[in-house]
Amino acid sequence: MTATDHEVAARLATEAGTLLLDVRAEFADASSDERKAAGDKRSHDFLMEALAAERPDDAVLSEEGVDDPVRLSATRVWIVDPLDGTREFSELGRTDWAVHVALWESGELVAGAVALPAQGITLATPTVPAPPAQPGAPRVVVSRTRPPAVALEVKDALDGTLVEMGSAGAKVASVVQGLSDVYVHAGGQYEWDSAAPVAVARAAGLHTSRIDGSPLIYNQRDSKLPDLIVCRPELADAVLAVTARR
């Protein structure tokens, strides 16, 4: 039986994650730059070869690959980030990094998987449990090194608390898992940073949009997609009341 697109996304993200754990072990005594380079390349090569074998008629947009303009006229495009959170990956012991594999088809994200290899978790469409309700102040997840001003404004407006974390995929996954409630980013990302996480978040019933409330649109000529919101649906209006006026 031919695997579904959901199954392909989940399996390839998971297998790339296993490969990255092996790279981490192999390069444990190397420099962080060598570990980053090896992880990026090996995961990218694996995903490109696997997609070429399993979905040979589809186009691919990868962070680590040359952007082939054929994707702009393609009906189906896989959008992948072979290693999201290279800094965290390079720091032995950190678990907040990810692998993203998503499929865009005819204008929509139709499948996606976010593997969190160091946590032994893969979140994948089509069925993603909704995060459990959490009492208390909303938790706004931000970068541990460069939290955007808009996220801090949202935290203040919601009288919330901050949760620091690494990669974009790990941050969105934390909302899906109920470990945080709001992820707001502004200041620079690309389609591969958010495509798979957004597909997973939508499957879990979460709100996803640009910070002005407009839709997140993928497979564009310019692959920059600099801002997004992923949050619990009941918090969306309050978050957008802050972000949409920027």
CATH class of the largest domain: Alpha Beta
Rg calculated over all Cα atoms: 17 Å
In total, how many beta strands? Answer: 10
Q: Residue-averaged pLDDT, rounded? A: 95
Proportion of beta-strand residues:
15-25%
Number of domains: 2
Parts with pLDDT < 50 across at least 5 consecutive residues: none
Strands ordered across the widest β-sheet: 1-2-3-4-5
Shape designation: globular
What CATH architecture label of the largest domain applies? 2-Layer Sandwich
Query: Helical proportion?
Result: 25-40%
CATH topology name of the largest domain: Fructose-1,6-Bisphosphatase, Chain A, domain 1
The total count of helices amounts to 7
* Straight-line N-to-C gap: 50 Å
Largest sheet: 5 strands, mixed
CATH H-level homologous superfamily name of the largest domain: Fructose-1,6-Bisphosphatase, subunit A, domain 1
How do the helices and strands follow one another from N- to C-terminus? HHEEHEEEEHEHEHEEH
- Please state the oligomeric state of the protein chains shown: single chain
Helical/strand content category: alpha/beta
Pfam families: Inositol_P (PF00459)
Binding site for Mg(2+): 63, 81, 83-84, 193
GO molecular function: 3'(2'),5'-bisphosphate nucleotidase activity; metal ion binding
Keywords: Hydrolase, Magnesium, Metal-binding
